[in-house]
Amino acid sequence: MDRIRIRGGAPLNGLIPISGAKNAALPLMIASLLTEDTLELGNVPRLADISSLLRIMSNFGLDHSIAGRRPGQSSETGQTIRLTAKSIIDTCAPYELVSTMRASFWVIAPLVARFGHAKVSMPGGCAIGTRPVDLLIMALARLGAAIEIEGGYVIATAPKGLRGGEIDFPKVTVGGTHVALMAATLAQGTTVIRNAAREPEVVDLAECLVKMGARITGAGTSEIVIEGVSSLNGASHDVMPDRIETGTYAMAVAMAGGDLVLENTRPDYLQAALDVLAQAGAEISPTHSGIRVRRNGNGIQAVDVTTDPFPGFPTDLQAQFMALMTRASGTSRIRETIFENRFMHVQELARLGAHIRLDGDCAYVEGVPGLKGAPVMATDLRASVSLVIAGLVAEGETTINRVYHLDRGFEALEAKLARCGAEIERLRG
Ligand code: UD1
């Protein structure tokens, strides 16, 4: 298994191109199942999760092609994928496949909406909290799907098609909103989604669905209204920039010091996180195509943070921010309200010398003057990148094991950081 080795102490200077968002690309790819025409997606990141989802959907009979690299394009340039779900031969997603990635459960929505039948295994994915799918199932039931749960599978049927309905989510769920949105596009009549997730990825999906002929208003607000149509057509759409990758590199430079331009991204996708970083001592300014983040000389101040659904501070940046706070002057309180158990990075950060105390859904991080390199273990996607951030300033060598988690969600991480001066390399093993 590959490892990543970092020698701490080098500042980060230069330019990092931000990739397309994994969390937008996955639902967009799944949306291709709603039409027999071709959906062309540009700016798709080269990540293990993208390949896994392609494998799962190919099993249904989906055809796909990946456009070759053009001259001048590097291995970090997003790829263009064409997806055609014309001859779907199977509407069952087995455990062996779904268990590798939780988001693949979402295929249940387009399958039942278009074919009237779907059998999808309960998901696996990152081991953060219990992460149930009850609200996703509730949404489909509100649209008239009959639901059975049998042997670890959810079977959704609607032989006469779905019909519009009112879906009130008791809690904000990104996946639930994606599922409700996709299913409602082909349901007969009007659907209203209340307490919808307002994440930019939901807006990206809605914009693509509209290009495909769906009738949707209100995406990006907490009430989305969908008028069902009888069929959707093909379209061409570029995946939005990855706001979590953007925030991760912003935190990396706040930690290591230096001056980074993050290109092809948008500050409004992560304003809450940038505000917190500015309070912590980073200088942040917009550029014509992204964000410039600097920290020169000044120390890092402790800031308290609570994770929240968008537009709040994202749970997917919590681990990275905690890494930053290990070096702050003062004690920071970090409260995780989205996922229980999303503190698995705490023990590993402690191996590098961090002082962190856990109390229920709060972590109290007491800044220390220095971290010391050590071998550490990546436990999930965001946790593993928090160890990279800590390693950037830890004295000596930090080796991060099990980097397959990183490969699921960060495109060309070590190449991007190394080009900006970090001493980081992948050890193939
Ligand atoms: C998505 C993101 C993930 C991010 C999360 C929150 C993708 C591929 N993943 O995950 O990176 O951390 O949003 O921003 O986009 N819940 C239920 N019942 C359900 C569904 C969810 O109780 O049926 C709960 C979850 O346990 C969690 C909360 O709702 O406590 C939010 O989860 P949700 O927004 O659904 O996360 P995902 O869509 O799985």
Automatic annotation (TrEMBL):
SUPFAM superfamilies: EPT/RTPC-like
Record: residues binding UDP-N-acetyl-alpha-D-glucosamine: 102, 131-135, 316, 338
Transmembrane segments: none
Coiled-coil stretches noted in the UniProt entry, renumbered to this chain: none
Active site: 126
Leader peptide range in chain numbering: none
PANTHER family named among the record's database cross-references: UDP-N-ACETYLGLUCOSAMINE 1-CARBOXYVINYLTRANSFERASE
Full protein name: UDP-N-acetylglucosamine 1-carboxyvinyltransferase
Organism listed in the record: Microvirga makkahensis
